[in-house]
Amino acid sequence: MRVVVPLRLRVPLAAIVLVLHLLWGMLAVFLVFPVLPARARDAMVRLWSRMLLVLVGVRVQPRGAPPSYGDAPSGALLVLNHVSWLDVFVVTALCPARFVAKADIARWPVLGHFARAVGTLFVERGRRHAVAEVNRAVAARLTAGQHIGIFPEGTTTDGSQLLRFHANLLQAAIDAGASIVPVALRYHQNGAPSDAAAYVGEMNLAQSIWRILRAPCLGAELHWLPALATREQDRRALAHAAHAAIGEALALTLPRSAVEPAGTEPESPPETASATP
Predict the structure, then answer these.
(1) Which phi and psi angles does 247 have, rounded to 5°?
(2) How many CB atoms lie under 10 A from the CB of residue 43?
(3) What is the DSSP string of 25-52?
(4) Per-residue pLDDT tens for 26-74?
(5) What's the CATH code, domain 7-250?
(6) In the chain, what are the domain boundaries?
(7) This prediction's pTM
(8) Which end of the chain has a smaller Cβ tally under 10 Å, C or N?
(9) CB 126 within 8 A of CB 165
């Protein structure tokens, strides 16, 4: 006989288990990660991300296959549209990847150390030459074979639109001779687009988690799109191509200009809501 737990009890219980899951992850990062080889750390992050998605009730539906890991001469730069803090975990549940995030996250109590320990790259917004420095770091990671994820919209949306891309961080893939893989992400409920996972406006993380826990049948559809070669390519042309591929996969209405005009790109990437586990 199936026991149905009332929503008023299920959501608080799920929140408690989620906190315990976070504590387990932090202990693993601080105590176990230092003695594990890279492959084992990647496997642990993948398992932790999958368990997180189960706990918040999100089912991942991949379309296509993620880029190979470890066999290629370099990693890939994953270029994603941005809807939620969950985006990172949807990707890392399927593919080992590190992400670029704002430096503010590194200063968060406990979680900042957590994000740094698993390989997040941080950018200090508003500081001169920040993009050049992070591009060098991303290029080095790509050359070493790691996949790196970025959100070139620079902010989150409710998933119903695709904002213009900032092309500056795509330069790292060109410098490393690595491919760019557009990745299109959409959240849905019962087959219809959903904004339940959207992390937008003045919403805080606790409010977002509570909203996700209360959303029944929430799914994340992840499209791994054909890779873009970067040899002899311009970053703005690559940003246009990635933007078009993601927009087509999600059937979104696109802005008249897909990329921020030349000369208006910030010296540091715009703020994102992203962190990595």
Answers:
(1) -60, -40
(2) 13
(3) HHHIIIIIGGGS-HHHHHHHHHHHHHHH
(4) 888 888 888 889 889 999 999 999 999 999 999 999 999 999 876 566 7
(5) 3.40.1130
(6) 7-250
(7) 0.88
(8) N
(9) no
